[in-house]
Each structure stands twice: as C-alpha cells, then as structure tokens.
Design a protein that fits this description.
Blueprint (H helix, E strand, L loop, with lengths): L2 E5 L5 H11 L2 E5 L10 E4 L4 H10 L3 H9 L4 E4 L1 H6 E4 L11 E6 L10 E8 L11 E8 L4 E5 L4 E6 L2 E7 L2 E4 L10 H16 L1
Parallel strand pairs: 1-2, 1-3, 3-4, 4-12, 5-6
Antiparallel strand pairs: 6-9, 7-8, 10-11, 11-12
The structure holds glutamine.
The site of glutamine has 11 residues, from α4.
C-alpha cells in the first residue's frame, strides 16, 4: 500500500482522497501528529490557509510536517496548501507556514469566491526526474480565490502561467498548483504524486 497523508483539518480534503483512491493510493486523513506515521507522500488541499495555519500551530503539527518534507517526501499542494508551503506570504508575514517551497505568494489574487472560473491552460506536466524531457498538456484549471506566485527561486520550475502570472510550480519532489485538479476528472497531478510516493516508499 502506498499511503498518502492528506491534511484534513479543513477544506477540500475529501476530493483529494477520492482522486488518490482513483489512482491506486491509500489516502490517510491527517488531523494530528499521530496520523503522520508510515506515510509515503503528502497532499495539502485548498481551503482557507489562515484557518489551516492556526490549526497546524494549535495541534503542534508544523515541525513534524516540515521534517517529513525536508526528508524528501513527495508533496502535492493546491491553493491554500500552496500558500502553506511557501517561504513568503506577501502582506501576511505573521501567518504561520511551512517555508518548504522557495516562492513568494499573493493570496486571493483573482478576486472573491463569486469570481471563480475554469480555464483550459497549457501547462508543463510535473516531471519525475531532472532528466525527463519536458511534456506539455492542456489542463482544466479551476480557480477559487486562487493565489498567484509573485516570485519563484532559481531552483523552482514553472509549470503553468496565465497572463504573466505563475500558477503552478515544481521544486524537486514538491508540486504546487494555485488551481484545483481535485475538482476535475483529470488525474495527472494525483498520478504524479502516487508515482513519486511509490518511488519514495521503495527508497526506505
Ligand atoms: N484564498 C484562500 C487562502 O488564502 C485559498 C483559496 C482556496 O484554497 N481555494 O487560504
């Protein structure tokens, strides 16, 4: 069994669990430090990053998550999950976060909930190793109060952009999207996480 921990404090975790089942993984809902044993991958869903950050601190989960990620456990994060991973949240410097991904983000860069939209985006597919040749595809990107990535460090690969705004990135075994693949039928990102988690499990 390839066990993928899905942060389940708040937000769209059920949809990620369903997508992970669909690709053959075993999703494990994480609500406290005790749920973080024996995992091979992590999924950080969308929702409200300010609430998730508070709960991560209250439940003393931040350090444990950071350790797992620094130990190269593969991670797929969407929207609020991307914000949680970032080094810098512009204008919300006090907000607790994991600081595992070398990006600076702007929250709510596309307006309010009612301004949500879906758009077919040409994206670079997440890659499995540095040597992979770059593949592109068209992806149905769902935006719900989505952040944008204002800056990305030199080791961060840009996977998606729209009108000059960076919307998806990869840094080694971390992939993060401002949009919501779990709300579509397209399992590209969940398949990537499953494959990387399999590799991680084999390396243990
Ligand atoms: N705007 C939200 C935040 O800042 C993220 C929205 C989402 O995850 N759909 O946390």
């Amino acid at each position: 069994q390839v066990r993928i921990g899905v942060l389940a404090l708040q937000g769209a975790f059920r949809e990620h669990c369903l997508a992970l089942y669909a690709v053959g993984a075993k999703p494990v809902e994480i609500r406290g430090s005790d749920d973080m044993e024996n995992l091979h991958g992590l999924c950080l869903p969308g929702g409200e990053s300010t609430v998730m950050a508070k709960l991560l601190v209250q439940n003393a989960m931040l350090d444990r998550l950071v350790k797992l990620i620094q130990g190269n456990m593969p991670v797929f994060a969407t929207c609020a999950g991307l914000i949680l991973l970032s080094n810098e949240i512009i204008g919300f410097e006090e907000q607790a976060r994991l600081r595992c991904l070398d990006i600076a983000v702007n929250r709510n860069a596309f307006g309010r909930q009612k301004e949500s939209f879906t758009e077919e985006l040409d994206i670079v597919c997440p890659c499995f190793s540095e040597k992979d040749t770059e593949k592109h595809c068209v992806f149905p990107a769902v935006f719900i109060r989505a952040p944008q990535i204002a800056q990305a460090g030199g080791n961060v690969k840009i996977l998606a952009q729209r009108k000059g705004r960076i919307l998806a990135v990869q840094e080694k075994s971390i992939v993060a999207t401002a949009f919501h693949p779990e709300l579509t039928e397209n399992l590209l990102f969940h398949t990537w996480l499953f494959e990387k988690a399999k590799e991680y499990k084999a390396s243990l």
